[in-house]
From TrEMBL:
Keywords: Repeat. This is Uncharacterized protein. It holds the Pfam family MORN. The keyword Repeat applies. Residues 54-77, 210-289 are annotated as: Disordered. The lineage of its organism: Eukaryota, Sar, Stramenopiles, Ochrophyta, Bacillariophyta. Residues 56-65, 233-244 have a biased composition (Basic and acidic residues).
Length: 461
C-alpha cells in the first residue's frame, strides 16, 4: 500500500519544482529587462541634460557677442560724430579765411583809391603852379599891346594844349591803373576760385565716401536682420519638434504583459531628440529700433516705401531709404521721421541735392544740381540758399561768386558772362542794384557807377 501512494507524490513534486524554476527564469528575465530600460532612461536623461547645458552656454555666448556688437556700434557712431564735428570746424575755418581775403581785397581797393586821389591833388597843384609861372612871365616881359595880345593868345593856346595833354595823360593813367586793378582782381579771384574748387572737390569726395559708407552700413544691417530672422526660426522648429515627441512617448512594456519568449535584442532603443549642433538664439536688443526690409510709411510731407532702421512708428536711429510715390528718393541718416546730419535727395525731374540736413531741411554746406545744368555750392539755412561766399554756375558758361541771402543773390558779388564781360558790385533780388562796374573781356571799363534793378543809370557815367 505504501509504494503505490508515494510514486504520484514524487511526480507532482517534480512538476511543481519545474514550474517554480520556469517562474524564477521569467522573473529573472523581467528583472533584466527592467534594468535595461532603466539604463536606457538614464542615458536619455543624461543626453537631454547635456544638450540643455550646451544650449544655455550657447545662449550666454550669443548674449556676450551681441553686447560686444552693440558696444562696437556705439563706438562707431561716436567716431562718426567726431568726424562730422571736425568737418564743421574745417568749414568754419575756411569761411573765416575767405572773409579775411575779402577784407584784404577791400583794403587794397581803398588804398588804390587813396593813391588816385593823391595823384589828382598833385596834378591840380601842378596846374596852379603853371598858371602862376605864366603870370610871372607876363609881368616880367611887358611887350607892346599887339605883341602882348599875340603872346597872350599864343600862351593861352599853349596852356590849353598843355591842359589837354595833361587831361589825356590823366585819362590814360586812370585807364592803365583800372586795367591793372582789374587784372589783379581777376588773378586773385581765379586763385581763390581754384583753391575753393579744390576744397569743394575734396568735400564732395568726402561726402561721396560717407554715402558709400552709409550704403555699406545699410547692407550690413540687412544681412544682420536676415541672420536674426533665421536664428529666430530655429528655436521655434526645435520647440515644435520637442513638443511633438513629448506628446507621443515611446511604449514601455510592463511585467504582466511581457511574454516569456521575448528576445532582448529586438527591443527598440529610444531615439535622441537633440540635434548635433544647438540652435542659435535670437538677438535681443535693449534698443527699441529694429531693421525692416520694407515698410509702407506716410507723414505730412512724404508717402512711400521705406527701407532701413525703424522704431515701430517712424524712421529713426540710423540709415534708411525712402522711395516716395512721386518718384523722389531720400537716402541718409534718419531721426524721428526726418533726415538729419547727412543725406541725399533725388527728384523725378532730375534735381539732386547732397549735403547737410537738420530736422528734414537743408541746413549747412551742400551741393544743389538742377536738371537744367545749374549748380550751386555753398551754405544753406532752413532750406534756403544763405551764404556770404558761394559759387553758382550756368550751363551756358556764366559763373557767379558772392553773397546769397533769402535764396537769391543779395549783397556783393562778381558775375562773369559767357562772352568774357565781368560785373563787380552789389546785387539785390538776383539783379545788379547799387554801385558796380562792368568791364569787357580785356578789362576795359564799360560802365562804372550806380545801377538800379539791373540797368545802368546814365547820369552816373
Amino acid at each position: 500500500m505504501t509504494t503505490t501512494n508515494t510514486t504520484p507524490d514524487w511526480n507532482l513534486a517534480y512538476q511543481q519544482l519545474q514550474a517554480a524554476q520556469k517562474r524564477v527564469e521569467l522573473m529573472q528575465e523581467q528583472v533584466q529587462l527592467d534594468r535595461l530600460l532603466l539604463q536606457q532612461d538614464k542615458r536619455n536623461f543624461r543626453r537631454r541634460w547635456k544638450a540643455r547645458n550646451a544650449a544655455l552656454r550657447h545662449e550666454r555666448e550669443r548674449e556676450q557677442e551681441q553686447t560686444t556688437i552693440n558696444n562696437n556700434n556705439q563706438q562707431q557712431q561716436q567716431q562718426q560724430q567726431q568726424q562730422q564735428q571736425q568737418q564743421q570746424q574745417q568749414q568754419q575755418q575756411q569761411q573765416q579765411q575767405q572773409q579775411q581775403i575779402i577784407q584784404e581785397l577791400e583794403q587794397r581797393l581803398q588804398q588804390y583809391e587813396q593813391q588816385i586821389q593823391k595823384q589828382q591833388q598833385t596834378e591840380q597843384e601842378l596846374q596852379e603852379r603853371i598858371l602862376s609861372y605864366e603870370m610871372q612871365l607876363l609881368e616880367l616881359e611887358r611887350p607892346t599891346s599887339r605883341d602882348k595880345q599875340q603872346e597872350e593868345v599864343d600862351r593861352m593856346s599853349e596852356t590849353s594844349n598843355a591842359r589837354h595833354l595833361l587831361l589825356r595823360q590823366e585819362q590814360e593813367l586812370q585807364q592803365k591803373h583800372a586795367q591793372q586793378l582789374q587784372q589783379q582782381q581777376q588773378q586773385e579771384l581765379t586763385t581763390l576760385h581754384q583753391a575753393e574748387r579744390a576744397a569743394w572737390d575734396n568735400e564732395r569726395t568726402a561726402l561721396q565716401q560717407q554715402i558709400q559708407e552709409l550704403q555699406q552700413q545699410q547692407q550690413q544691417q540687412q544681412q544682420q536682420h536676415h541672420h536674426q530672422q533665421q536664428q529666430q526660426k530655429e528655436p521655434r522648429l526645435q520647440k515644435e519638434h520637442e513638443e511633438a515627441l513629448a506628446a507621443a512617448p515611446s511604449p514601455r512594456p510592463t511585467v504582466s504583459t511581457l511574454p516569456s519568449s521575448t528576445n532582448l535584442s529586438t527591443i527598440p532603443s529610444i531615439p535622441s531628440t537633440i540635434p548635433s549642433t544647438p540652435p542659435s538664439t535670437p538677438n535681443n536688443n535693449n534698443n527699441n529700433t529694429q531693421w525692416v526690409m520694407e515698410h509702407a510709411w506716410h507723414s505730412e510731407t512724404y508717402k512711400g516705401l521705406y527701407t532701413g532702421t525703424w522704431d515701430g512708428q517712424q524712421p529713426h536711429g540710423g540709415v534708411g531709404t525712402l522711395r516716395v510715390d512721386d518718384g523722389t528718393v531720400l537716402f541718409g541718416n534718419w531721426q524721428q521721421g526726418q533726415l538729419h546730419h547727412h543725406g541725399v535727395i533725388a527728384s523725378m525731374d532730375g534735381d539732386l541735392y547732397y549735403g547737410a540736413f537738420t530736422k528734414g531741411r537743408k541746413h549747412g554746406y551742400g551741393v544743389l544740381v538742377w536738371s537744367d545744368g545749374r549748380l550751386y555750392m555753398g551754405l544753406f539755412r532752413d532750406g534756403l540758399r544763405d551764404c556770404p561766399d558761394a559759387t553758382m554756375t550756368w550751363p551756358y558758361g556764366a559763373t557767379y561768386r558772392g553773397s546769397f541771402r533769402h535764396d537769391k543773390r543779395n549783397g556783393h558779388g562778381v558775375y562773369v558772362y559767357a562772352d568774357g564781360r565781368c560785373y563787380t558790385g552789389m546785387y539785390q533780388d538776383d539783379r545788379p542794384h547799387g554801385p558796380g562796374t562792368l568791364t569787357d573781356k580785356n578789362g576795359n571799363v564799360l560802365y562804372h557807377g550806380q545801377w538800379e534793378w539791373g540797368e545802368f543809370l546814365p547820369h552816373a557815367k
